[in-house]
Write the structure tokens for this entry.
Amino acid sequence: MSDFPSNEKALGMYKKMYQIRKYEESIYYLFLEGIMPGTIHQSTGEEACAVGMLYDLRKDDWMASTHRPAGHDIAKGISVKAMMCEMFGKADGCCGGKGGAMHTGDINVGALPANAIVGGNLPIAAGVGLAFKMKKKDSVVVCFFGDGASNEGSYHETMNAAGLWKLPVIFVCENNMYSATTSILLTCCQENVAADRAAVYGIPSEVVDGNDVLAVNDAAARAITRARAGGGATIIELKTYRHGGHSRNDACGYRPKDEEKLWIQDRDPVKNFRKRILEHGVISEKELEKEEMIIDQEIEDAVEYAKNAPLPSYESALKNVYMEG
């Protein structure tokens, strides 16, 4: 573990985690009230994974997400207004209102539109990494996947190619211990579902506390430096926990209550990092509350804007169907 970061960086990381948490809380209640259409797969509780991995990326670095993309996309630079408009299916959404909750993204900030197929983003990320290598660019790709995706054929095929070709991709397993509603203990014989297999592909790996944003950021720095220098891929397994269910209709009746208490109450990444930055004198409690109020207002404004924003035109249904050259 490196030294505590600068005050500017520490506060910036906290604010981004807080922003993701508040965005996710907002859309949860909007769905609960029947105001927002569709469904959601939330990443509440996994904010340190997204922020720690993506905070130091450049704009020309890319990110590939999953069916649980909100935290990744906001951490990579998509505005909450564009995200909220997408959730309401509006024209000002980051994907023009066509993507919805599982397909948010914005190429302009290096966020590939999210892929809802489990493991479907892995070969795509490898392809982007191969393109960077062929063009002799030092850009990197961060590719997120869940513990369940580590058992997909696309995972093994991708890792074999990434290891063989030394692709500049950082593969990040967000191991929240459940593949949808099934415990990983029932589906995988390895304790570390991604890292324990990494040596087979000739790829170095790390297992990290995914609820410690600074530990995640340190691991990200090592992997990014290695990839930029031509050293190839890294597999980082982040031990974390989603606070809610797999999707909005999942009441989590299959999870032990003492497990939920440990992860949700005691190991909350946002609450715990807030405590750390106050203890390190990064900012005063009063000033931090002001910063949080600004973000709260930003979320409220985004909701109001999205509610009143225009719907996509009928003609837009014919655009982006094929490559428009």
